[in-house]
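W.,

You were right to be curious about this one. When I first looked at the sequence I had no strong expectations either way, so I just let the prediction run and decided to look at it fresh. Below is the sequence, 179 residues in total, followed by the output.
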Amino acid sequence: GDWRCENGQWVSTGSVVTTEPITIPPALVVVKGNLTLTGTVTFSGLTSSITVEGGCAYINGALQVQLTPAELEAIARESGSSRSVVLLSQSSNCTSTLSSLAVTPVKVAKSCRKASATSSDSNDGTRTSLVVVFKVDSSSCNSRWIILGCVLGGVLILAVSLILLVTFNDKARNLIRPF
């Protein structure tokens, strides 16, 4: 279908069918008609979503969500280090199940945080939505401070041991100060 921008949203003028990998921009995309996708569908961040109006979503492929370090940090700061996001919604009359779609979080830049995603269906009577809960684990971010503390502690112990050795051992003191 053709696309036009309405009030900051991309809106199709008909059904959308593609077998190519597709990237959804970081905004709401509205499909007027059926959405048939085969291959990888990449959502550009947590603000990226698809609403299907007057049709149903048929997706046979992988769903990925690109997460920036800022988005990972924002999720980590929330209660339970998790955030719930609606990626896709369609009419509840549709027979295609959205919960069977596996969603994979993809980090767009190097980050010590690890992200995971679990997906489920949500039905409010008129619309069925694919709800994804992103969870962020920040435990590996603390390892550099632990390593730095261990190294500095080891250097400090060696320095104190050397000073005590030179101060209280005559042979070591004569070796350092021969006169």
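Here's what jumped out at me. The mean pLDDT is 88. And, maybe more interesting for your project: The first strand starts at residue 3 and ends at 6.

Coffee later to discuss?

I.
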